[in-house]
């Protein structure tokens, strides 16, 4: 072979090997994909009783789906139905989704939330509806900064921001409060 044929072949071979080396180097520079975060576990169609640090009932829960976060500290729940023990009976709550924080110290009810208090001496229940509600089972209190509607017998209230003392069965609306109070059936 003469040099006029050999030189172009060597040039093509050098370009090909150089391109291959650069391609291999670039492949090593691409970060590995992150591992998929998976739940610690998933529960379907279950009943659960959560205990607080003293060993007493913090809440009971029924739901079609619960997923524990990979960090093992919190849970996400779909279509939950909670029961929170109070001094004079059970508080019932439901929502579209919920989040339970570490050690069940906080329960966040999210979207189309309804909280119903235990029956009073007259048999009436207080019903709260809102978009987001945080319940603190150990402290027997609930709160939100969202808009709230309240029905108590034939009385109706609405406001922005709510604090509920579940032990004393008292509530406080914080801002933009409106209401219709019916002290006796004849007054409404």
Automatic annotation (TrEMBL):
Q: Which Pfam families match?
A: LptC
Q: Which GO terms describe its molecular function?
A: glycolipid transfer activity; lipopolysaccharide transmembrane transporter activity
* Gene Ontology CC entries for this record: outer membrane-bounded periplasmic space; plasma membrane
Keyword tags: Cell inner membrane, Cell membrane, Membrane, Transmembrane, Transmembrane helix
Show the InterPro entries listed in the entry.
LipoPS_assembly_LptC-rel, LPS_export_LptC, LptC
Give the protein's recorded name.
Lipopolysaccharide export system protein LptC
């Amino acid at each position: 072979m003469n040099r006029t044929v050999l030189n172009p072949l060597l040039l093509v071979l050098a370009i090909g090997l150089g391109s291959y080396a650069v391609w291999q180097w670039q492949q090593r520079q691409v970060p590995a994909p992150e591992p998929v975060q998976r739940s610690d576990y998933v529960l379907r169609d279950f009943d659960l009783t959560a205990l607080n640090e003293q060993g007493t009932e913090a809440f009971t829960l029924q739901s079609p789906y619960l997923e524990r976060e990979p960090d093992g500290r919190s849970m996400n729940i779909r279509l939950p139905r909670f029961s929170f023990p109070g001094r004079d009976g059970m508080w019932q709550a439901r929502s579209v989704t919920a989040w339970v924080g570490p050690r069940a110290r906080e329960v966040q009810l999210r979207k189309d939330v309804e909280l119903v208090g235990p029956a009073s001496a007259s048999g009436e229940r207080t019903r709260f509806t809102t978009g987001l509600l945080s319940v603190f089972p150990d402290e027997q209190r609930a709160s939100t900064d969202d808009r709230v509607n309240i029905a108590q017998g034939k009385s109706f209230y609405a406001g922005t921001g709510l604090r509920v003392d579940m032990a004393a069965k008292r509530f406080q609306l914080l801002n933009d409060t409106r209401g219709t109070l019916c002290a006796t059936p004849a007054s409404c």
